[in-house]
Amino acid sequence: MFTSGQYRVLRAISMMGNISRTQLVEITGLSKATVSTLTRELLDRNILSERELVFGQGRPAILLGLNAISACFAGVSLQSDPAQILLTDLHGEILAQMDFPRIPDPDTCVDHIASGIETLLARAGDRAGPLGGVGIAIPGFVALDRRVCLRSTALGWRDIDIVTPLRERLKVPVFAENDANALVQGEHLFGILRDCPDFSMIIVGDGGIGCAHIVDGKLHRGFHGGAGEISHTTVFWPDGKETERPCSCGKRGCLDTVSSLQAIRSMAQQRDLPGSPAELELLARDGHADALRILHIAGGAMGLAVAQLVQLFDPSQVVVMLDQPFREGVFGAVLRQTMETHVMPRPDWETTLTLRETRRTDWATGAAGIATRQFLFSE
């Protein structure tokens, strides 16, 4: 869709925001004449727009930025039921959204997605540019070609291709991606970590524990595409029989059996306690011994896993996405303390740990970000 030079300009503007032509020359290493030609071509195609004047020494500079309404992108999240579709502009702002029932039948799923996107395009009207692509976040393993879902326990899928029929119906590029990979790419493109070239993100959700990594500014997939499967890391917590629980994968002691929301609810129910994060944290704050034990085991196991991740990958930041009560309560405090205890101290670097609340739209926004990245960067 764009030339290699145009992609270089678009990448720089996407990373830096509004920027002058002089700054583009410095960042891209292209000549002044080449930058002038490339930006004019992108302005003529309505992909870029000229912004406010910046006054300083010499002539005022005109800033260039992405034209938000030059294209829109659909993001689909199959991570939970109901599933979600939304439209974003080129800046990642949500234009319209809707839920639909997550029905495992692939043909029905394709129909729901296609008709939902058509509905949202009509609803957004003039606020949305032409549809530039579709991203789908799937809870499961997705092939490296981003077309076939190799296996999804949540959906009951194995070797299912919903990308090809959607491409044929919508006549735009469509990409499938593991849900954690989708979320981390959306954060890197649209979020506060857009300028961070190396970070890891862990998501504690109803569907289990997801993880993904950005390395040197790109998603790290691993040789087989399975990088980030932290949920099946084996963890052993001292004096904690809960860390020996059987996992759906056939092993015992997986992180998913201890620190996922489902595992925490199960441990709480065995002790006749409420399983919601808010209620458990409230009981722990009041000194309830069993609630404190559950949160210490779950948060401690997660802290051990994060410490191992830091030792292996040396990211500049680790972001853990979880429910607000856990972020602000015992779970989050134990997670942080355990990680700090088990990471080898170094005088020359320190990994920043951030606990953030998960928003339901994060998954679908990340999926839209996959299509946006392909549009802007061809990757």
UniProtKB/TrEMBL annotation:
Organism of origin: Novacetimonas pomaceti
GO molecular function, one term: DNA-binding transcription factor activity
Span of domain HTH marR-type: 3-48
Pfam families assigned: MarR_2, ROK
The protein's name: Transcriptional regulator
Family: Belongs to the ROK (NagC/XylR) family.
Source species, domain of life: Bacteria
PANTHER family referenced in this protein's UniProt entry, alphabetically: BIFUNCTIONAL UDP-N-ACETYLGLUCOSAMINE 2-EPIMERASE_N-ACETYLMANNOSAMINE KINASE, ROK (REPRESSOR, ORF, KINASE) FAMILY
Spans traversing the lipid bilayer: none
